[in-house]
Design goal:
InterPro entries: Pept_HybD-like_dom_sf (IPR023430), Peptidase_A31 (IPR000671). There is one protein chain. This protein has 151 residues and is α/β, with parallel strands linked by helices. Strand 1, helix 1 and strand 2 form a beta-alpha-beta unit.
Length: 151
């Protein structure tokens, strides 16, 4: 399977950097299991990301969330969304990217969002202990999700 893993967030704002770390870990696990996996790392999603998804079988997005999920993380299929909440750092959501692709006539792969609940978004380059634990649970949860849905 040809997969792109997109991790985004600000790695200088503690838990907001979990997307970068998560993308690298998921891509490594996919490669170890015989899949072709590339990564895209950024501070935020941009409309140009749409072109990176062409020709892929699966796109996995991973980011920190201020939402506090019961398990500390959430994994969900991305659905198309035209909603834009003004121009801010999170204008380009995975759902908006999917919507944009449809408007451009670009065939998109299946898209999955992995959200990890953060607790500390202050300045710093390391994840909080709580977020690190949630990230590890999310990685295990993703492996099971992937195995159940794509193998």
């Amino acid at each position: 399977m040809n997969v792109i893993v997109l991790g985004y967030g600000n790695s200088f704002r503690k838990d907001d950097g979990v997307g970068h770390r998560g993308a690298l870990a998921i891509a490594e696990w996919l490669r170890e299991n015989g899949h072709e996996a590339t990564t895209w790392i950024g501070h935020q999603l941009l409309p140009e990301v749409t072109l990176e998804l062409e020709g892929k079988d699966l796109a996995i997005f991973i980011d920190a969330s201020v939402d506090q999920y019961p398990d500390g993380y959430n994994i969900a299929e991305v659905t198309s969304s035209a909603d834009i909440d003004g121009l801010n750092l999170h204008t380009c959501t995975p759902g908006w990217i999917k919507h944009l692709a449809a408007q451009m006539g670009i065939d998109m792969p299946k898209m999955v969002m992995v959200s990890v609940s953060g607790v500390d978004f202050d300045f710093g380059e390391s994840l909080s202990c709580i977020c690190m634990g949630r990230f590890n649970k999310a990685l295990d949860g993703f492996k099971k999700y992937f195995t159940d849905n794509f193998c």
